[in-house]
Amino acid sequence: KVVAVIMVGGPTTGTEFRSVSFNTPKPLFPLAGHPMVHHPISACKRIPNLVQVFLIGFYEEREFALYVSSISNELRVPVRYLKEDKPHGSAGALYYFRDLIMEDAPSHVFLLNCDVCCSFPLPDMLSTHRRYGGMGTLLVIKVSAESANSYGALVADPITNELLHYTEKPETFVSDLVNCGVYVFTPGIFGAIQDVSIQREDGANLRQVSCFEALQSATRTLPTDFVRLDQDILSPLAGKKQLYTYETMDFWEQIKSPGMHLKCSGLYLAQFRLTSPHLLTSGDGTKSATIVGDVYVHPSAKIHPTAKIGPDVSISANVRIAAGVRLLNCIIMDDVDIMENAVVMHAIVGWKSSLGKWSRAKGDFDAKLGITILGEAVTVEDEVVVTDSIVLSNKTLIVSVQDEIIL
Ligand code: GDD
Question: Residue ranges of the Mannose-1-phosphate guanyltransferase C-terminal domain (predicted)?
Answer without folding.
Answer: 291-406
